[in-house]
């Protein structure tokens, strides 16, 4: 077997993945970054490993393992996170499997940087994460912001994964898990912040998504004809659990246009992200109350 440096191995792998027409959107945005993630896993490198390592010669056993993983990625079109059983979010590592979506939300940026000006110093003490999946958002929120977080999901299989992640990060005292249809199980509670990354893919769009999405649980992706089946219910429920100063921050991705049309009479805040990402809106409690009143005819 010919000796290759890490740089050569990564370039070859990226070229093969591009030629195979793979989709990159489950933790990376391009073929070279995906190849770096593979190398990080196989060679036990840190997530931000230095480019000085590019000249390192990859030993034959490691190269064989790398190329086997690359072949699996190309042949199956399975997201790399599922192949290796882990993903990174907000600088933290999480166990993942096909019971949960691969973590990739731009909400990570908000969690790390804080929620000013909406929830300044001392105003964020309690939060709820809706559709927690692997628990990545709830755990990152508890880890970076030091707040108490309730994490809800309708899927018992997802909550089993989340429980293992809570344990691995030693955050059992801050993160509580509930099986719940949206906020049903936490009625009567009060929160400063609701973070939600609910299913928002319109039914028709599922047929057009790359094969990589077919490995993810449909329960975590599809939400009716316009993608807003769960979002409508969530906003109505949010009015009853938010503190007076509280806010709902919700990711809706490609359903953003449908949200704008539906809530055209409200001053919805759409958030910008330095590291990329869109389709995330913010409503305060007063606006959630308006939506709830409109939906119930009150």
Key features of this structure:
298 residues; alpha/beta; seven-stranded mixed β-sheet; two-stranded antiparallel sheet
Our estimate of the beta-strand percent is 15-25%
Strand order of the largest sheet: 7-6-5-8-9-11-10
Helical proportion, percent range:
25-40%
Structural classification: alpha/beta
What's the Cα radius of gyration? 20 Å
- pLDDT averaged residue by residue: 94
Descriptive report:
There is one protein chain. This protein is an alpha/beta fold. Helices cover 39% and strands 17% of the residues. The strands form 3 sheets. The chain has a 7-stranded mixed beta sheet with strand order 7-6-5-8-9-11-10, sandwiched between helices. Helix 1 runs parallel beside helix 3 (60-76), helix 5 packs parallel to helix 6 (136-145) and helix 9 packs across helix 11 (285-296). The longest helix is centred in the N-terminal third of the chain and has 17 residues, at 60-76. The radius of gyration is 20 Å and the shape is globular. The N and C termini lie far apart (73 Å).
Reconstruct the topology from this structure.
Blueprint: E1 4-5, H1 6-19, H2 31-43, E2 57-58, H3 60-76, H4 80-84, E3 86-89, E4 92-95, H5 107-113, E5 126-130, H6 136-145, E6 148-153, H7 156-168, E7 175-179, E8 191-196, H8 203-206, H9 229-241, E9 242-251, H10 256-262, E10 269-270, E11 280-284, H11 285-296
């Amino acid at each position: 077997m010919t000796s290759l440096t890490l740089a050569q191995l990564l370039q070859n792998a990226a070229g093969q993945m591009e030629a195979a027409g793979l989709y990159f959107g489950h933790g990376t945005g391009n073929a070279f970054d995906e190849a770096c993630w593979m190398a990080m896993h196989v060679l036990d490198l840190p997530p931000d490993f230095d480019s000085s390592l590019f000249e390192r010669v990859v030993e034959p056993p490691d190269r064989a393992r790398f190329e086997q993983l690359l072949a699996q990625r190309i042949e199956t079109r399975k997201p790399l996170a599922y192949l290796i059983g882990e993903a990174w979010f907000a600088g933290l590592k999480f166990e993942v499997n096909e019971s949960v979506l691969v973590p990739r939300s731009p909400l990570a940026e908000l969690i790390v940087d804080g929620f000013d000006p909406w929830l300044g110093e001392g105003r964020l003490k309690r939060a709820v994460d809706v559709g927690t999946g692997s628990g990545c958002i709830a755990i990152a929120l508890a880890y970076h912001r030091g707040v108490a977080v309730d994490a809800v999901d309708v899927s018992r299989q997802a909550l089993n994964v989340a429980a293992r992640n809570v344990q691995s990060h030693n955050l059992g005292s801050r993160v509580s898990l509930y099986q719940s249809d949206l906020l049903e199980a936490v009625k009567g509670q009060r929160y400063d912040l609701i973070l939600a990354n609910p299913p928002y893919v319109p039914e028709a769009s599922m047929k057009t998504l790359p094969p990589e999405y077919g490995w993810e649980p449909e329960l975590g992706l599809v939400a009716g004809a316009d993608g807003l089946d769960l979002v409508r219910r969530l906003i109505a429920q949010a009015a009853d659990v938010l503190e007076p100063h509280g806010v709902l921050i919700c990711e809706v991705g490609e359903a953003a246009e449908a949200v704008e049309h539906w809530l055209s009479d409200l001053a919805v805040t759409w958030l910008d992200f330095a590291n990329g990402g869109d389709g995330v809106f913010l409503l305060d409690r007063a606006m959630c109350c308006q939506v709830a009143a409109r939906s119930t005819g009150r």
